[in-house]
Amino acid sequence: MTPTAAPDRSRLRWPASRPGWPVIAQLGRAPSTGPPARGYPLDPLGLLRTLHRLPSSVRWTVLSLWTVLFTVIHGGSLAGSWHYFDTGARALIAVSDPGGGLHLYHSHPELQFGPISLLAALPFTLLPLAWAKVTAVVVMSAAGLVFVALASRLLPAGARGQILLPALLFIPVWEELAARAGHLDDVLALTLALGALLTLRQRRADTTAVLLGLAVGAKPWALPFVFLLLALPADRRLRAVGWWTAVVAATWLPFVLGEPRTLAAAGFRIPNSAGSALRVFGVSDPHTPVWCRAAQLVVGAAVAYALWRRGRPAAILLGVIAVRLLLDPGTWSYYTAGLLAATMIVDLVVPPGRWPLPWLTVGAFVLVYVPAYVHVGLLASQSVQGYLRAGYLLAVLLAIFQLPMPDARCGAADADRPWSTRVTGCDARCSSPARTR
What we know:
By secondary structure, the protein is an all-alpha fold. The protein is built from 17 helices and no strands. It has helices at 21-26, 44-52, 56-74, 82-93, 104-107, 115-121, 129-152, 164-181, 184-201, 205-218, 234-258, 277-280, 292-309, 316-326, 335-349, 359-369, 382-402.
């Protein structure tokens, strides 16, 4: 029997003489030093490497257009919560009003954000409310690109193309925060916290402390981020804590002293959503439990301290935000923006494995964000969404203590080398014992 000749597959390939072939031919092709492989050349890992190698101009053009697209998609409600910032900013300067000035938090307990957010919102009150909303949405949407640019600095200069994939997942959720909800307070707190993380890497102690203090002044839930200061060299910590305390006191103390009932605003209650993680844990209160806000701060602080002890300060933001979402009765979609911001940071810091995908960010997007919009089958049940939320957040809290992560407490005097390229462990200059977990 005469053997059948192998089919000629070369005719199935795009001719190399076609215009644009040099780019298309390499898209997704795995690097190889051997003879050309037969058959379809697409390789997932090769495609991923190709995306990482895109020119910076192409990458930022894609992300800018992506931002515009989701600003338009989510902008239908046009900063639905912006009226809170407009009301608060106007009340802040209405010092002659019995419910304004230093009394505003007692008069308006629904304003669950800090004086820094009110000061930032003040310039927008010069515009008519409709134009103020549009302008605020543009500014906050642009802040998402700024956040991505800052986060990319956690990577080595030659590897910053790796920001593309997590950013493509992050931006749609950021626009929930910026365009749909218009929550300036979270935008400020998250951006300031990331700025503090970058200055911490450079051992700029005073700047780190001031940025963390301003984050607390923008949003009180940022309080546990202060444990980032423990990652500073021991001889700089006390001064940094002093700066942080001064900034927090300057923003909050006038309101507490001027109106002692200001602290009662912390007891403001919202409905306990059927899809919240609290429901999964058996908390059936129809509104925010009285212990909830204090528990968020205490447990968040405990997780932040434990992460520092394990030499993982880059994961502190994620740990605190995960605790906040686990113990929060609300499930607003813009809450997830903070989660993806923090997972993106950790994904950039954790050394890539065989499949260098932003797994934590992908998980947050698929398991926490997407189910809110997919009302099919089991996902139509809010209780199922709650189990997905709680399960993912608990898994993240476990993962950030187990994933290999460089010890940013040591060797950070070299500000040109990001955490993701350092070897875990401490040298003789480090003030803490070596931990290589």
